[in-house]
Amino acid sequence: MNGISHKQAVQWIYGRLDGLLSEPQRLLLDEHLRSCDSCRVYASSVDGFSDHLQNEFHRRWDAQPGPSQNVFEYVTTGASRIPMTNRISSGVRLLAGAMALIILGIAINFVIARLQGSSPLTTVTEVVERSQLPEIRLLAFTSDQNGNSDIYVMHADGSGQTNLTNNPARDSNPSWSPDGKWIAFESDRDGFVQIYLMDANGSNVFQLTHDEAHHFLPMNIHGESNPWSPDGNKLLFLKQEPEAETSTLYLLDIKSKNVVLLVNGTVQFNNISWSPDGKRIGYVLNDSPTPDATFVTGLYVVDAAGSNLIVINTLLPQTDVVDKPSYYWSRNGSSMIFIAYRHLDEGRDQWIAYEAILDSNQLIERATSSTIMEDWWEGTSFVHGTDPYLLTWLRADGAFNTLKPLEVCDLTVESEYGFLARRSPNGNQVINIFCPNREMWFYYASSDGRIIKPLLNSPIPSFTVDMNVTSITWSSDDQFIAVTLASPEKSSLYILNVKSPSIQPGEIVMSSGELYAVPSWQPVP
Amino acid sequence: MDYRLIEGCRVGDSSAVESFVHTYQQDLYSLALSILDDSNEADDATQESFLAALHALDSFHGASSLKTWLFSITVNICRTRLQKQRRRERLRKILGGILQAAHPPSVEESTIELESGEALWRLIHQMDEKHRIPIVLRYYHDLSIAEIASILQVPEGTVHSRLNTARRQLHNVLKEGNL
pTM here? Predict the structure, then answer.
C-alpha cells in the first residue's frame, strides 16, 4: 500500500534516468521493480535504449575532425574591435538609461500621489505576524512557476503567496525550524548546493555550509526534510563530493558553527530523522553486500554526539528481516517502531511489529499478523485484510474498524486505481484513493481507527492521465495536509483541512513541468 | 572559473582571447555540430558564438559556469540557424526539382544512407528543436537536467518532460526496428 503504481513506476524510471528522484523515491522504485517483472523488463529496455542512443550520437559525431582553423583566426581577429564598440555602445546606453530614470521618477511621483489614502496591500511582515494564529500558519514550498526554482510561503488557505528567495539560483527544499522563525533551504547560488537559513519573511539569509561540495538537507522516507534538532539549535546535513553518489552525514551547531561527523564513511543514506527527544538520529542504509543487488534494509541509530551506534537489525532473531525502509519513533523518542517479516514453514508468512527500546537495546514484539502489516501505533495494528483492498485498524483488545477505500470509485471503468496511506508523527493517517475515472479522494483515520471520515465532500476531479501524488505532508498538529501532484505538463499543490473538510481544495500550480518538491509546514508554537 | 582570462578578454588582451577560444572551441563546435549536423554550419555557428560571447562578457556575472553560459549562447545561435535552414528548405521545395538535382544530399537524405539506425536518425531530424536539443544535450554532451535547464532557460521539470516525450518516441522506433 505504501508502494507505487505501475504508471508511477514507469514515470520514475525516466525520473531516475535524469537523476530527479529523491532517495525515498529511488527506494520505492527499487522495491516496485523487485516485485514487478514487466516494470523490470521495461526499466531494462529503457536503460538499453539510453545506451544505444549515446552510442549512436558518439558514433556519428566523435569522428568529426573538429572546428577548422578559420574559426580561431576569424574570432581572434574580430575580437580586437570588440572593446571599442562596447565602450561606444555603453556610453549610448548610459545616456538612454539616465533619461529613462528621469521619466520613471516623474511617473512614480504621480502614481504615489494618486494612491495616497487607499488601503495598502498585505506586506510580508503582516503575513508573518498573522501566521502566529494556527488557522493561517504558513506552508513553505518550492515553485518554478516564474521560470526559476524559488521558495515561497503561503497561508494554509492558499492566500498571501510570497516569493521568499527571489534568486536566479535554484533554491529548493525548505524546512521550518521548530520555533517557526527560520527556514533552512538548499541553493546552488555559489556554484555548489549549499545549506542556507533565512527568516520567515525571506530576510537575513545566512549561508551555513561553504565547502566546495554539494550539501543537502536529509529526508525521511516520504521525502520530507526535517534536519532540525527538536530544540532548533542543530541541523543535520549531508555532504556529497561533486560527481559522487554517496554522502557523509554531519551535524552542525548553528550558534558555535561546530560540525560533528555523525557517520564515518560515505554511503547512500535513506530515511534520516531525529528522535522527538533530540537524543538520537535514525537512518537506513542498504545492507546488501553488493550494491546492485536487492535492497536490504538496515536500520541504524546513532546519538547526537555521533557515538553509541545501534544496529537494529542485529537485535532481530535470525528468522526475521526488516520489511521495508520505514520506521517510527515513539512519542518520547525512547524507542523505534518498525515492521519485520518472517517466512514460516508451509508457505506461511508473518509480519511482526517490533519496538526497539534504545536505552537497553531490547526488542519487544508488539503485534503479529498473518496478512501484510503496514505499521503499528500504540496498540493498534494497521493491516491489510485477506482482501488486499480492505484496510483494518486492529486494536489490542481485538476490536477493529475497517475501510474499503475503493468503494468510492466506479470500478467498471477500466483504468488504473489504487490507494496509499501516510501516517502523521502523531499516529493519525490520511488515505489517498485514486479511482479509474481519475478522481481522487482523501480519507482521515485516527491512530486507533475509531474515526474514519472523508476529507472531501467531492473528489479532486480529472487530474491528467500522467498525474501522480508526489508527497503528502501533515502539519505538526495534524490539522492540515499538503498534497503535491506532478505530471509532465503541470505540478500542483492542494491543502486539505482535517477539521473542516472542504468541498474542493484550491489548486496552487507549482510548475508547468514535472516538479518533485515536498513542502514544509510552519510548526505551531 | 578563470576570472583573469575573462577580465583579459573584456579589455581586449589578444593572448587572453586566444586562450579563451582555444579552451572552448572544441566544446562549442561539438555542440553546434550535434545540433546542426553539418560541419560547415557548425564552424560558422562556433565563430558567431564566440564573437557574441566576447561582446556580451560584461553581462556574465558567474551565476552559471562559463561553459554553461557559452553553451546557452551557442544553442540560441544554432536555433536561429535552424530556423534559417528551414526557411531555405521551404523555398527549395517551392522551387521544386530545379534546385533539387544540384543540391547536395540533405541531412535527412544522408542519414538514410546510414547502415544502421536509419529510422532513429530520421526521427531525430524530424523532431522539433524543442525536443531534439534536450536529447542531444543529455545523451551526447552528458549534461545534467539542471545544466540543460540553465542553458535552455526553462524549468527543470520542462526539460524532463521534453526529454520524456522525445525518449518515448525514439524508444518506440527502436523497439519497432528491433535495434
Answer: 0.59
